[in-house]
């Protein structure tokens, strides 16, 4: 099988084409190929499929084999891939995902795709759509208890479910211990990504995300959107912010008409062939 390895700030993906809609076991492939010791290594697979309603369709399979509805860093890598491989020739394209259509727009530097700005749609706060089990009409600055410790969290849907926690410092030990417990709490019937957010000032936040189905990643695009929206909603920042991850930054705009735009780099790492046994 031919593949291309791509990365969005270190959130890395293996891109595979399935334009003939062949019956492939994506979950098995994801577990095999994403393995960092016995496979190519990646946080997930991005599959290129044909679409009946958009220019192209993106499927995203996490490294544990579960399928996600959407992926922000993945959408940027995917748009660069389909453009550079002649699958979509438009600089602004529509991409079907399981959470609806997103609109990536390529930003060129010296005729090469450097960054991608993705129109991500609206953030959703309705508990039944996130989903989160609560009798409230939204889950903003709510209290949850983990191992006797209390956390104040905000949950929202940005294509995929996110739960945002504001912290005074980013501590990876806490993230890898608490993240998986929150991800699998019973109140989140489809699980949740968990974003740990340090507010630097009204224009800058630092984020690390414990991802549903992939664990601690170097960056998360939908996580950047969710964190920026939660920060502005709770009056910690302005509506447009730079989101800092370990290996680079994303720029998030949450417009007054409630749309989210995500801008950042997308890079090809290498291409190759792999025998699937
Ligand atoms: N890294 C992604 C999100 C990928 C999906 C996530 N793991 C989930 O299952 O919800 C991003 O950049 O948004």
UniProtKB/TrEMBL annotation:
Cellular component per GO, a single term: cytosol
InterPro entries membership: DAP_epimerase_AS (IPR018510), DAP_epimerase_DapF (IPR001653)
Site (Could be important to modulate the pK values of the two catalytic cysteine residues): 162, 211
Entry's EC annotation: 5.1.1.7
Keyword presence, Mitochondrion: no
Residues involved in substrate binding: 11, 62, 72-73, 193, 211-212, 221-222
GO MF term list: diaminopimelate epimerase activity
Catalytic activity from the UniProt record: (2S,6S)-2,6-diaminopimelate = meso-2,6-diaminopimelate
Listed pathway(s): Amino-acid biosynthesis; L-lysine biosynthesis via DAP pathway; DL-2,6-diaminopimelate from LL-2,6-diaminopimelate: step 1/1
Keywords: Amino-acid biosynthesis, Cytoplasm, Isomerase, Lysine biosynthesis
Signal sequence bounds: none
Active site: 71 (proton donor), 71, 220 (proton acceptor)
Subcellular location field: Cytoplasm
Pfam families, per the entry: DAP_epimerase
Any single biological process term in GO: lysine biosynthetic process via diaminopimelate
Superkingdom: Bacteria
Family: Belongs to the diaminopimelate epimerase family.
Subunit structure, as described in the record: Homodimer.
Described function: Catalyzes the stereoinversion of LL-2,6-diaminopimelate (L,L-DAP) to meso-diaminopimelate (meso-DAP), a precursor of L-lysine and an essential component of the bacterial peptidoglycan.
Name of the protein in its database record: Diaminopimelate epimerase
């Amino acid at each position: 099988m031919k593949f291309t390895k791509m990365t969005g700030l270190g959130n890395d993906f293996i891109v595979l084409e399935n334009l003939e809609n062949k019956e492939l076991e994506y979950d098995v492939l994801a577990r095999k190929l994403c393995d960092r010791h016995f496979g190519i290594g990646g946080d997930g697979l991005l599959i290129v499929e044909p679409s009946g309603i958009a220019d192209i369709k993106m499927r995203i399979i996490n490294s544990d084999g579960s399928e996600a509805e959407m992926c922000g860093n993945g959408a940027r890598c995917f748009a660069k891939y389909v453009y550079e491989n002649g699958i979509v020739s438009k600089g602004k394209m529509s991409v079907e995902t399981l959470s609806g259509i997103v609109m990536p727009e390529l930003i060129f530097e010296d005729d090469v795709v450097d960054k991608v700005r993705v129109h991500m749609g609206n953030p959703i706060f309705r508990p039944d759509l996130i989903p989160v089990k609560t009798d409230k009409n939204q889950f903003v600055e709510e209290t949850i208890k983990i191992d006797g410790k209390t956390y104040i969290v905000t949950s929202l849907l940005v294509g995929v479910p996110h739960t945002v926690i504001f912290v005074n410092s980013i501590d990876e030990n806490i993230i890898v211990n608490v993240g998986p417990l929150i991800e699998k709490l019973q109140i989140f019937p489809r699980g949740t990504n968990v974003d740990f957010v340090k507010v630097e000032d009204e224009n800058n936040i630092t984020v690390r995300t414990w991802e549903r189905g992939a664990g601690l990643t170097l960056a998360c695009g939908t996580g950047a959107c969710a964190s920026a929206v939660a920060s502005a909603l709770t009056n910690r920042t302005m509506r447009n912010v730079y989101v800092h991850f370990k290996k680079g930054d994303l720029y998030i705009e949450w417009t007054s008409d409630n749309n989210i735009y995500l801008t950042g780099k997308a890079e090809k790492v290498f291409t190759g062939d792999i025998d699937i046994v």
